[in-house]
What we know:
By secondary structure, the protein is α/β, with parallel strands linked by helices. It has helices at residues 3-6, 13-28, 32-39, 87-103, 124-138, 157-171, 195-211, 227-238, 261-271, 285-290, 328-336, 344-347, 350-364, 370-395, 399-418; strands spanning 43-52, 58-69, 75-82, 109-116, 147-151, 219-223, 242-248, 251-254, 281-283, 295-298, 317-319, 340-342. Among the domains are: 40-178, Rossmann fold; 195-347, 3-Layer(aba) Sandwich (Rossmann fold), CATH 3.40.50.
Amino acid sequence: MTTERATRGTINPWEVAQQQFDLAADRLNLDAGLRRVLREPRRELIVHFPVKMDDGSVQVFTGYRVQHNLGRGPAKGGIRYHQGVTLDEVKALAMWMTWKCAVVGIPYGGGKGGVIVDPKQLSQRELEGLTRRYATEISIIIGPERDIPAPDVNTNSQTMAWIMDTYSMHVGYTVPGVVTGKPIALGGSEGRNEATARGTVYCIVEAARHLNLDLSKATVAVQGFGNAGSIAARLIGEEGSTVVAVSDSTGGIHDPSGLDIAKVVAWKAEHGTVQGFPGATDVSNATVLEVDCDILIPAALENQITERNAGKIKAKIVAEAANGPTTPEADAILFANGVFQIPDILCNAGGVTVSYFEWVQDLNRDFWDEAEVNSKLKGIMVKAFKDCLAMSLRENVNMRTAAYLLAVQRVADATAMRGLYP
């Protein structure tokens, strides 16, 4: 069990997701029938599939694909490989994807997938076999107009290439639009790799402007030093901020005078951990959340900020690059303490927004350069941030509740207008 997963305790992410939805539904006086529809996923697919291992043995793995709501378009959401994946976690992530797509106004519903596996224990050949068999099992519900997977925890562009190829072999022709987050050579989008982190930083810039916080003098801590966290650390550094702490699944490092992010990235590539970085103090994952800083970027897994540690957070801004890092009880504590939160369904929506761009490019066989992608991304993220901020100020609620009010209303409107079939 990783440090990240162990710190989450017994909090059920699906109960958290439903609780967050209920808060918004209450404020919106949502119709009881609509509320029942939106409170549950539309489909939950559980698959058990065999994979031939390198030693000749056959192992059986369990995987999931959940579609929460398809009212505004096909399902969209990542696939994670993790030994701690549960159906409830995947359901929560699918629901969060529904709201995330609605917040930024892109025409998707929410989906999510996962396989219970520690991919670090598998060879590349075993990973390919697992991915292709899982893709085959879920191929009955995915497709470019139905459900479009993407990378998530422990999956990447290579994983998407295997899924795209497997699906294409089934239908008999190449279908680049069945997944996003692909390699550029297979119809991936410029800017996709940095999109989640770039969207996060666009939101931080807007929040700092709102709070009159000078980013060139701001200090930052980043929990989670994977794709989103490491790139966010680099991009916020380009805004002039000083990153004082980072962590990965093995633990964290802290240096109040600032970390050289390029050197930390190189250290992690060489040693497999950020810990032991010269000149920094080794600290725990939990400690990184509580260091003295202006901006905290949780970019690891869910349920990291709870009622146990929310009162110890010193940051003025919490920018959620991860999905579901904060529990509802912690939200209330942070809001009472004057911490400005940029909620996950807004803050990390850059990834799905550029996934949407990739899908559009694939369907049209028309490809944009990185400058165009980043310009379009900035426009969407800034507008979504301003919409949420205006709702927050008007209703005197925290930014998460504001984002939920916007998103749930948009999904409810689409669902109600479509009506019930048959």
